[in-house]
Structures are given as structure tokens and as C-alpha cells.
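Much of the work behind modern protein science is quiet bookkeeping, done one molecule at a time. The protein below has been through that process, and both of its lines are reproduced in full.
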Amino acid sequence: MLDEMQNENEEDLPELSPHFAIQPNPKSDLKVSAKYVLGDVNVPTFCVRFDWHDKYIAAGCGDGTIRIFNVFTGKQSYLLNQDMEDAMPTQMIRWRPLSAPGVTKNVILATNCNGVIQHWHTTSGRLLNEI
């Protein structure tokens, strides 16, 4: 029964990029397969970071965007920095700590190759500050 369910789920998955494939150990009894692919394989990803609750994963992309995916559904929840004038890759992402002073939650700190540091509010998509 479990094998039938796994086969059905594998049919619904998109194909992996030909550059990246999971190669299981042929001597192992365990079978490994991708649950889903996050993002677009044509846009390079420079960094990823889970939020403090492990519900979202943020990806800094080569086109300057920050894509935030729901880990449980595998779907993109938020897209930040999509209207950047001179698109430069996002190199680093950090989620604001839960214990940080202030009431604003779901804040991301991101840096780009052009030297800009940005604070984003993920749920509203607002740029809070830029240095």
C-alpha cells in the first residue's frame, strides 16, 4: 500500500533539472525521491534561509528577487524585490530573530551585490528600510 502511494505521488512531481539529480546508494534499502522542486531552475539561487518556525524558506535569486516558499505546500508565498532597477543578485538573507525588540514580525534582512542592505516585511511585501 505504501509503495502504491509513493508511486502516485512521484507522478505528480515536476522533473528535476538535468544538472542536479538524486543518486541513491544502490546497496541501501531506503528509497529517496524529491517531494517537490522550489523555484525556477532557470534562475540561479545564491542563498537560502529557513524562518524561525521552519514554515517558510527564503531564496535569494540571481535576478535580485527574494522568493519565499511555504515548506509544507511547496508553493511560492511571497515575491520581494521584483522591481529592482539594476537587477543584482541577492547574496545573503537573514530572518529577524523572534526575540528582537519591536512588534514587527516576519522581517528579512537582505544584501545585494550592489552593496545595498534592505529590510523587508515579508507578509506585506513592503520595503521597510534601505541602506
Remarks:
- Residues 107 and 121 are 5 Å apart (CA to CA).
- The longest strand covers residues 45-50.
- Residues 36-130 form one domain.
